[in-house]
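A further point concerns the way the authors explain their paired sequence and structure data. The central task, working out the structure tokens from the amino acid sequence alone, is never made concrete. I therefore recommend that a typical entry be quoted early in the introduction. An entry of this sort, consisting of the sequence and the corresponding backbone structure tokens, reads as follows:
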Amino acid sequence: MIAHLRGKLLAKHPNQAVVETAGVGYDVTISVPTYSDLPTVGAEVALHIHTHVREDQIALYGFLRPSEKLLFEKLITVSGIGPKLAITVLSGMAAQDVVGAIRGNDVARLTRIPGIGKKTAERMVLELRDKMPEAGTPSAAPVSAMSAVEEDVLSALVNLGYQRAAAEKSLAAVVKNGKSGSFDTLFREALGALSK
């Protein structure tokens, strides 16, 4: 599956971007905050991608920040919320405000987002409240500060079955100890830290 796209931005609209990579133009659905932060058409752009596969369609959803992608992926686990509604949620309210509203049981605030009724907002709170990072915890911050190699290492560790939080912690410890460089070096060191 496509997890990341880097290439030339061919077109951008409030809910769509077209990114050319190796001669292929990818149509990516984006949120309004991502649209606002995109560079000008013709510039290079890198998007974190969620590939959504249905029997009748393959759709790409793109985010400039890994934390926004993570929130999107949590939102689509809620029954009644599909990818389009999740993008609407991220377009209707800043990601940290969505997290705050869910953690604070603020159903009234969530229902102000177009397409989110009372029952859907209650399900969001019920199903996601304990899965949201604490306000001010480092779990949201270091993700965006990672290099592409560090993100690849983290993805590999999660794919091996390690909890994301534990993988992030071990990777952060390895980087803090001055280890950096190739994927292999970081992966082995982080894996070693997790195995202890």
